[in-house]
Amino acid sequence: GIKMSYTHLIKETLDILDLSVTFNENCLTKEKYKGQICHIYRGNLIYTAQECIHCKHQIASDIVRWGTTTVRLLMNDVSEYRTYLELKKQRFKCKACQRTFVADTSVAKKHCFISEKVRWSVVTRLKKNTSMTEIAAQKNLSVSSVYRIMKRFYRPLNPFRTPLPKVLCFDEFKSVRGVSGAMSFIMMDGQTQRLLDIVENRQLPFLKRYFSHFSREIREAVEWIVIDMYAPYVSLVKKLFPKAQLIIDRFHIVQHIGRTFRNHRIKETNQLLKSKEQKHYQLGKQLKRYWKLLQKDERKLDYTRRLWRPGFKAHLTETDIVDRLLKGSPALRVGYQLYQDFLYAVKERDYVSFEELLTNNIMLPEGYQTTLRTFQKFLPQIKNALQQSYSNGPLECLNNHIKVLKRNAYGFRSFYNFKLRIMIRHGNALIFN
């Protein structure tokens, strides 16, 4: 009776389900092993073999016990100690074929010294943003074991097996160093926000090859594609998605004009700071200090709270500051007005005023002209963006997750491993046992 309860207790502690494993009274020792004090549980694995694993011979009297063999299996930690199970396994000999074999257990796979429980615990950790090295340290494994477990349990879903969704989002992100073109391409379902696939290279010939794997019917089913202003995508879509309409992501439209205004502002600021006149120099300092208020959407500026502003030596609201900055620099004022008008048009989805803004701005510096020409070039796609509700927001969010994962892992060398890890993190990998 007592023997059973020892066995039961230890099996509960180590989470072992195999009925053939038994433990005796003094089975736990603390020893120094691999430079660390460890818990070592000693158990026995004994049962009567019913058939020979080699020749499938089934007469029990011909299968005899043939000594034992001892293996040491790595278990999950017990109260912060590294824990091993030293299992004395029964060996058998089959008289029919003269070969020997060893008793089998569900605790660990054959020829494997890492128990299944440890493997599963690694598998669950792979879903979080932990670095491989960190998982290896937590579980007392080598990093390559963690990679091996990842590759054994997970395969990325084959994207060519599933039809493409109605709305696709395209984007790129900086993946691993070895990728030619330095950026990898990523696509997502615009409605369900499911990650579809990650392609190593974002260059045009490469993507053409990739998308031509999908049949024409599947490609024709795509209605909308959301992209940023990366020109090759436009020709890619024309060729491969005959029925799809393009949408330029609204965030990128705003970002583009915002960037143009920022460059203008920096240029002005630098000129003012070089000036010998105290008044201009002072304005330059103020522009440098309060630049964020100029980038902000006009309607979000605070016009009620007066605070002491050291740059102006006065109590001012945010709107006051903007007024003073623009008063001092008339050149900036024109750019600012244009920037805010674009912001307003995009926010209000007002395509008519957006188009008007493109035509009547002749006075502006060269930087703006380039941006306006770009907008002109992408006008139909921008029109779609202002009329449809799809956007690349979820994809940009995913990109942020990817950056965090990459930073936590101190970078990845292999694109395949990186991709697999992202797929696992976002529920797009199949689990194999």
TrEMBL record:
Residues 168-422 form the Transposase IS204/IS1001/IS1096/IS1165 DDE domain. InterPro entries: Transpos_ISL3, Transposase_DDE, Transposase_Znf. Residues 51-97 form the Transposase IS204/IS1001/IS1096/IS1165 zinc-finger domain. It holds the Pfam family DDE_Tnp_ISL3. PANTHER family: TRANSPOSASE FOR INSERTION SEQUENCE ELEMENT IS1557. This is Transposase.
